[in-house]
């Protein structure tokens, strides 16, 4: 099973033929800029579509702290996304309180463990909206 750096490498090499479909869901690659280093960091993340946007969840398995990739995009919301062979620039934003329930529902239908992760932490797990830039 693909995970971490190997997942990113195989996904890139095959334009997602290996790595997009994972554990009965779908994965994209999100590249953020390190908020301290300025270096690019790429993370494979479960995603779903919502209209023209892509949704990801900053769960870190219910850890009490946000994942590094989320902290990076809060500092700099200009990101790169790869879905299969489609690579594009996007602007990331955290779903607001009004839209989060609908978006959370979309994501828990594809990965039900998100509900477990939320129960395991006091932190509100963010849903991130990736808006494609033209």
From TrEMBL:
- GO molecular function, one example? coenzyme F420 binding
Q: Name a single GO cellular component.
A: plasma membrane
Pfam families noted in UniProt: F420H2_quin_red (PF04075)
- Could you tell me what reaction this enzyme catalyses? oxidized coenzyme F420-(gamma-L-Glu)(n) + a quinol + H(+) = reduced coenzyme F420-(gamma-L-Glu)(n) + a quinone
Record-annotated membrane-spanning stretches? none
Family the entry assigns: Belongs to the F420H(2)-dependent quinone reductase family.
Specify the protein name: Nitroreductase family deazaflavin-dependent oxidoreductase
Instruction: Tell me the organism's taxonomic lineage.
Output: Bacteria, Bacillati, Actinomycetota, Actinomycetes, Streptosporangiales
């Amino acid at each position: 099973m693909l995970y971490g750096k190997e997942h990113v490498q195989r996904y890139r090499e095959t334009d997602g033929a290996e790595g997009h479909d994972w554990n009965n869901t779908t994965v994209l690659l999100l590249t953020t800029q390190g908020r301290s280093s300025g270096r690019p960091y790429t993370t494979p993340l479960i995603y779903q579509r919502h209209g023209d946007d892509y949704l990801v969840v900053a769960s870190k398995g219910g850890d009490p702290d946000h994942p590094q990739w989320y902290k990076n995009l809060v500092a700099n919301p200009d990101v790169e996304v790869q879905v299969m062979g489609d690579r594009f620039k996007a602007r990331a934003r955290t779903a607001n309180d009004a839209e989060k329930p609908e978006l959370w529902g979309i994501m828990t239908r594809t990965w039900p463990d998100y509900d477990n992760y939320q129960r395991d932490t006091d932190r509100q797990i963010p849903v991130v909206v990736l808006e494609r830039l033209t």
